[in-house]
Amino acid sequence: MFLGEYEYKVDSKGRLPIPPKFRQELGAGLMLTRGTDTCVVVYPLAEWRSLADTEPARTVALSQKRRKLNRHIYGGAFDMTLDGQGRVALPLPLRRYAKIDDVATIVGLNNYIELWNPELWNAEKVSVEEQVWQITESLEDRQ
Questions:
Q1: What does pTM read for this prediction?
Q2: What residues contact 38, with CB distance under 8 A and at least 6 apart?
Q3: Cα 100 from chain centroid?
Q4: Could you state, in order of their start, the residue ranges of all structural domains in the chain?
Q5: C-alpha to C-alpha distance for 27 and 45, rounded to whole angstroms
Q6: For residue 17, what are the CA distances in angstroms to 53, 57, 106, 108, 129?
Q7: Would you say 120 and 39 are in contact if contact means Cβ atoms under 8 Å apart?
Q8: pLDDT in tens, 80-129
Q9: What is the CA 35 to chain-centroid distance, rounded?
Q10: Pick the CATH number of 2-118 from 2.60.120.10, 3.40.50.2000, 3.40.1550.20, 3.90.850.10
Q11: Which spans in the chain are helix H?
Q12: Residues of 52-77 as b/e, b for ≥16 C-beta within 10 angstroms?
């Protein structure tokens, strides 16, 4: 389980340390891809396979929306491993997409991780804090 928020420096080669408490779950490998909120999403391989094996992901993308979403998620994915020091090399296209330069905020979100530019993450946190009560109430209405 991935929980919490951490800030780490990205080295000159684009390597980002992963918090020690996250490393065991990522030991078998990880997938990095573009998130929908200008961040990088990190999935353990087992979680990625589960996501890729869902019915919508396996069906032929007949709709334009599905094709575009597939291009965004799967076309921007990179299969990676942690190095001996617990770092992941962030591919340049993902760093550019998420606007991650010399520092990244790592956010644990239960079964996956997001990597953010710290300024963008702080703006997202403010937005979430302003809307969380509305989001919660709208979810309660669906039950």
A1: 0.89
A2: 97, 98, 99, 117, 120
A3: 13
A4: 2-118
A5: 9
A6: 29, 30, 10, 14, 28
A7: yes
A8: 999 999 999 999 999 999 999 999 999 999 999 999 999 999 999 999 99
A9: 6
A10: 3.40.1550.20
A11: 20-26, 45-52, 55-58, 64-73, 92-98, 118-141
A12: eeeeeeeeeeeeeeeeeeeeebeebb
Phi, psi of 61 (to 5 degrees): -80, 90
How far apart are alpha carbons 61 and 76 in whole angstroms? 17
Helix (H) or strand (E) holding 9: strand 2-9
**How far is Cα 34 from Cα 123, in angstroms, rounded to an integer?**
18
Q: Within a 10 A sphere around the Cβ of 48, how many other Cβ atoms?
A: 20
One-letter amino acid identity for 92? Answer: L
Q: Amino acid identity, residue 100?
A: I
